[in-house]
Predict the structure.
Amino acid sequence: MSTQKFRLEREKTAVVVVDLQERLMAAMKHAGKVYRNTGIMLEASAVLGLPVVVTEQYPKGLGHTVEEVKACLPSYEPVEKITFSCCGEQGFMDVLKKTDRKQVILLGSETHVCVYQTCLDLLEAGYGVHLLRDAVCSRAKENYLAALELMRQAGAVITSTETVLFQLLVRAGGDEFKAISRLVK
């Protein structure tokens, strides 16, 4: 079995944050964990030079990206959508293609709806997807677990925030390592 799909390369990787919005996240039991790991991933993305794409599902009804996430973004320019899959929104695909990256670190909510459908579409479009299981959530645990298994079966790499950060770092030492180490402590 080839292990290539499990490897991330910094120059090929972008981060996609799906629908971490005010009214949606108010219903999530594990919102705090998702905010913490999303914040770590976003701050590390700035250190590592990874482009970040943020989406909002129907913000008129679900509100905008939560402040806990906005505070970690260098700029706030969400792609608005009404399709569950981010890929169904042409504006999203345009922004993602401009990054010129073919590997995606995927996180957000809800795991079994927008994250799941986005994952499938990204895989079909030829992207490698690394899903951060500690930075996604659903209202019901059964939906969360079912979506993780379905995405694994579809070909996504189910991983964690700390795992991808140290994979992208490659080696210990230097300012980037120190900055990332501080984030995960």
User: Anything to note?
Assistant: Strands lie at 13-18, 52-57, 79-81, 103-109, 128-137, 157-159.
